[in-house]
Design goal:
Layout: E1 4-12, H1 19-28, H2 63-66, H3 71-87, E2 99-104, H4 110-122, H5 132-136, H6 140-149, E3 155-156, H7 164-178, E4 183-190, H8 195-204, E5 227-235, H9 236-241, E6 248-257, H10 267-281, E7 290-292, H11 299-313, E8 321-323, H12 326-329, H13 336-350, E9 352-353, E10 376-377, E11 382-389, E12 393-400
Parallel strand pairs: 2-3, 2-4, 7-8, 7-11
Antiparallel strand pairs: 1-5, 1-6, 4-5, 6-12, 9-10, 11-12
Helix pairs in contact: 3-6, 7-13, 10-11
Length: about 400
């Protein structure tokens, strides 16, 4: 089987509109949280979200293109441009037929849908935009990336709520490793910050009133975010033959289902996914130095994940560095796993662990090393990136520092 390496990263996030700015903000502990500004929030209880700021669609697309692109697809295509540009690949020739585009989204084009519902139910509109369906479908980001770059290989979306991007990257990894494709453009995108979507999340009573404090005492819930992150994967042979700059290596992917409650996390399912990723990578548990946790900041999820880490790693759990970057960028649902995958790849590459911000002190049930409030320099060999989704769907990626 092929070794699978990473040659491009692209990021649109609440704390940076490129991978470099995103990574610099993460390691500086910068917050992307603030009051909603991109939609009317007068009737919301939510006072804090993680918006992508400073993104001007007209700087990236012409008027004809914008008519076809919801905000979620705009994010995806722009992040893909950065990733593909860094990789230095062209898909217009034969490689296009040997490349996959697999991009996750939890809910697709919510801006378009929210606007349409407002016109239909609020304004009694007789007609709505003729392209609502192709703009809102969850596979739109993957399809738009395919069309933009001329990618003609396997192209599809994965929609598994908060694990969508991680499942997508894992599927792409397996395709490249098996030789079914030579390269893949993969990740996730989400643009969920609309009035209707936030109201729906409010009804679940898991949104924080102030900030996100994963694993900390006095944590009060999650902060909704948005954005996109894209990785370019290639077989090592292909990347080496063209002299590509290799950023890291994907070595394992594990997934599981709880087959239990639709929303309550189950540590046993998390354990099975992490154990599967370790087995897929053929690495011992003590080879892992860092875990980018799912870490939503909700009471139940953080306790369950801590328990699962103990059950997976045993005594080695106490030696792990663990952080939740959701403490800075919020929970971007279908994009979360890709944003966190990039954080894990960069942590290994740069020997720097991003912090868990807003940490006030340990919860008795969350007593591991969560790298509180300040980034940490430390050589890293391998890192896990965890995603545990509603529906009891678990996905875990393993990254390793590239050694030729």
């Amino acid at each position: 089987m092929n070794r699978v390496v990473i040659t491009g990263l692209g990021t649109i996030s609440p704390i940076g509109l490129s991978t470099e700015s995103y990574w610099n903000a993460l390691t500086a502990g910068q917050s992307g949280f603030g009051p909603p500004t991109i939609f009317a929030a007068e009737r919301l209880n939510t006072k804090v979200v993680a918006e992508v700021k400073g993104f001007v669609p007209e700087h990236h697309f012409d008027a004809r293109q914008l008519g076809l692109l919801d905000r979620v697809s705009q994010f995806a295509v722009v992040a893909a441009r950065e990733a593909v540009g860094q990789a230095g690949l062209s898909f217009r020739e034969e490689l296009g037929e040997r490349t996959a585009a697999i991009v996750g989204s939890g809910i697709g084009g919510q801006t378009t849908q929210d606007d349409a519902f407002k016109r239909i139910y609020g304004e009694n509109a007789v007609r709505v935009h003729p392209l609502i369906i192709p703009r809102t479908m969850p596979n739109a980001p993957a399809s738009q990336i395919s069309m933009h770059f001329g990618i003609k290989g396997p192209t599809y979306a994965v929609s598994t709520a908060c694990a969508s991007a991680t499942h997508s990257i894992g599927q792409a990894f397996h395709l490249v490793r098996a030789g079914a494709v030579t390269s893949a453009v993969t990740g996730g995108a989400e643009a969920q910050l609309t009035h209707g979507t936030v109201k729906a999340w409010e009804a679940m009573r898991i949104l924080a009133p102030d900030t996100c404090r994963p694993f900390s005492r006095e944590r009060k819930g999650m902060v909704l975010g948005e954005g996109a992150a894209i990785l370019v994967l290639e077989s090592l042979d292909h990347a080496a033959a063209r002299g590509a700059d290799i950023l890291g290596e994907v070595v394992g992917f594990g997934m599981s289902a709880d087959a239990g409650d639709l929303t309550a996390p189950d540590p046993s399912g998390m354990v099975r996914a992490m154990t599967a990723a370790l087995a897929d990578a053929a690495l011992p548990y003590d080879a892992v130095d860092y875990v980018n946790a799912h870490g939503t900041g909700t009471t139940a999820n953080d306790i369950a994940e801590t328990s699962a880490l103990y059950k997976t790693f045993g005594t080695h759990a106490a030696r792990l560095a663990i952080s939740s970057t959701k403490s800075m960028v919020g929970h971007a649902l279908g994009a979360a796993g890709a944003l966190e995958a990039i954080a894990a790849v960069m942590a290994v590459r740069e020997a720097t662990i991003p912090p868990t911000m807003n940490y006030l002190g340990p919860d008795p049930a969350c007593d591991l090393d969560y790298v509180p409030n300040e980034a940490r320099r430390r050589p890293l060999h391998a890192a896990l990136s965890n995603s545990f989704a509603f529906g009891g769907l678990n996905a875990v990626l393993m990254f390793r520092r590239f050694d030729a």
